[in-house]
Design goal:
single chain; alpha+beta; DNA polymerase, domain 1; Dna Ligase, domain 1; four-stranded antiparallel beta sheet; about 40% helix
Length: about 400
């Protein structure tokens, strides 16, 4: 452990969107509630109350399936303004205990409370005070993990949901014993593909990974992933709050000479912007954790949308995939005046980031390594033989 004296909290609000709705509408309390599109509309579940989860309803599930699982489920429209206001109040509570806060999303954050212990007590005491403050000031509940590092704190916060508090042992033997029985899918960066590989090797739990032959693991999933997973299996995570490069962005956008409605033209332009941005990110030696889409319609209405990556990336393939998902989600049948793509929240390492895994699967790290090598090789070829020496098949259509 880099510094056994550090104390981190991971605070995760319980069924946040649905809980805000139940707080604001007492008639919904104790009932299965889904925030998202109604069952007769095309759409998915954005959040489900714990009463709804008992029926097998979860985030990203098509709304019609949610209705089939629970015919009396109550659908509620998204009220993002209310959720953001609640989030702001919660973040202010965090900042009243420590300036070292790293939000991961609207409803969860890491806190480094190492320096706050002299004022407020040990990690468990601070966690209890934060949970109390959240309950008193917002009438919402949070689950908190207390641990010597960020990885363990994240694992712990999910152990006793909802309204739970879990403290991880701070000694090495205790840490490994805490992790040992957990399924291998709880590891950061273990998506469906990697999980299948690990299960095929006979590694169903983190405990099994702790004692597994490293050379066999390296041959199966690659050296970088093997080193990362081996360290995490032993509870080793040396990152800290503020491990990202100072806030900045790398982006590119273009304004069409005439408003464009042809989707192929819009997509082709957008892909070229993505590739230019990806190349600049690699040249700067960074990995992006957030990608942005910017669209301006013919009436000058402008939207900016973003999403965060579970594994920081700088390769063309990943950034294209994520960028196109954003475009497909938000492009409307309206004339487009401007389109842009950007990246931000950079790191100098591609170690996996924490996300809500019920919404997004972490990509396979073996494939991640291949994409990085391919993109860097392409950069070298272009630098030597010119920018047009390599072109994608889709660019030649």
């Amino acid at each position: 452990m880099k510094n056994p004296d550090t104390t981190f909290l991971h605070v995760d609000m319980d069924a946040f969107f649905a809980s805000v709705e139940q707080r604001d509408h007492p008639e919904l309390r104790g009932k299965p509630v889904v925030v998202g599109a109604a069952a007769d509309q095309r759409g998915v579940v954005a959040a489900a109350s714990y009463e709804a989860r008992k029926y097998g309803i979860h985030s990203a599930m098509p709304s019609r399936i949610a209705r089939q699982k629970c015919p009396h489920v109550i659908f509620v429209s998204n009220n993002m303004g209310n959720y953001k206001e609640a989030s702001r109040r919660i973040m202010r509570i965090f900042e009243s205990y420590t300036p070292h806060v790293q939000p991961l999303s609207i409803d969860e954050a890491f806190l480094d409370v190492t320096g706050a212990r002299r004022l407020f007590g040990d990690g468990k005491t601070i966690a209890e005070k934060i949970r109390r403050d959240i309950k008193e000031q917002t009438q919402l509940t949070a689950s908190v993990g207390v641990a010597p590092n960020m990885f363990l704190a994240k694992i712990a916060s999910d152990q006793n949901k909802p309204d739970g508090l879990t403290v991880v042992p701070f000694d090495q033997d205790g840490i490994e014993a805490f992790l040992a029985p957990l399924p291998i899918g709880r590891m950061w960066g273990v998506g469906k593909v990697t999980q299948k590989k690990l299960l095929s090797l006979g590694i169903p739990t983190i405990g099994k990974l702790q004692t597994f032959d490293f050379q066999t693991l390296e041959n199966a999933i690659g050296s970088r992933s093997a080193r990362l997973f081996h360290r995490l299996a032993h509870g080793i995570d040396e990152r800290g709050i503020g491990g990202e490069v100072d806030e900045k962005s790398i982006s590119n956008e273009t304004t069409f000479k005439k408003d464009v409605t042809d989707r192929e033209q819009i997509e082709a332009t957008y892909k070229r912007l993505i590739d230019k941005v990806a190349s600049r990110v690699r040249k700067a030696g960074f990995f992006a954790t957030t990608v942005h889409l910017r669209l301006r319609w013919s009436d000058f209405t402008t939207i900016t949308r973003q999403t965060r990556l579970s594994i920081p990336a700088c390769d063309d393939i990943t950034l294209r995939e994520v960028g196109m998902e954003l475009l497909n989600e938000h492009l409307r049948h309206r004339p487009v005046r401007l389109i842009g793509f950007g990246t931000s929240r950079f790191t100098e390492t591609d170690a996996p980031q924490t996300l809500q895994m019920n919404l997004f699967e972490a990509p396979d790290t073996t494939e991640h390594e291949k994409r990085n090598r391919l993109s860097h090789t392409a950069d070298s070829i272009k630098e030597k033989y010119g920018k047009t020496s390599i072109r994608r098949g889709s660019d030649l259509d």
